[in-house]
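[Automated response] Your request has been received and processed.

Submitted sequence:
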Amino acid sequence: MSYNLLKGKRGVIFGALDDKSIAWKIAERCVEEGAQITLTNAPVALRFGTLDALAEKLDAKIIQADATSSEDLDNLFRESMDVLGGQLDFVLHAIGMSVNVRKKKEYTDLNYDWMMKTFDVSAISFHRTMQSLWKLDAMNEWGSIVGLSYIAAQRVFPDYSEMAESKALLESFARSFGYHYGNRKKVRVNTISQSPTVTTAGSGIKGFDDFFNYADKMSPLGNASAEACAAYCVSLFSDLTQMVTMQNLFHDGGFSTMGMNPAVLHG
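Generated structure:
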């Protein structure tokens, strides 16, 4: 069901790869709610994903951009404003990658060059994104910027490796840049800490299936789906949440507040 919550709004969606991506579901829901969008991902990701199919479905232009390149980001936002016909109302940052995790390096034996790449792609790119938007004055007043995070930023999930520190940095950037953007243009900046979700990237984490089932039992409402996350993002992009900023918002069926659930012990 559509409520036209984003009617007339323009946005940029980072990170959609295939139909299992949370960003893919968010893009679909934004357009369903009346928004016009552009889609972006790194050139290497575009070669392995199926973003063309989403772009055709949503009548959205794909603009390649490496989120670790300020030049690429500047071009992305200039072209998006040109294609969409004005300043932006919302931006989704849904980017995360760890070479150490992909290569199954133990947390106590990390490759530090790979770690720096993780931080650059997964967190510093969020600051780069906002800095580019800021310098280009690309956001409308009362716009909304959202980054996707995970509870490992606050609690220990050993197999999440240095992605945990990346998410902590991401959340810190949301608070710090949110202060400046709020003062300047009433733009709000938040992160969503999502349940473990079956995606192409997430499923590659060691022990993902076991933890997904554990979190589902622990959470009174069960794990939040990608579709539910999309609906939550729409609410944050809409005018209904104009006073919500600099927050890390848990969207996890209650997992983040639980101590123990008997269902886990007896399940």
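Summary generated for your ticket: The mean pLDDT is 95. The CA atoms of residues 104 and 142 lie 42 Å apart.
If you did not submit this request, please reply to this message.
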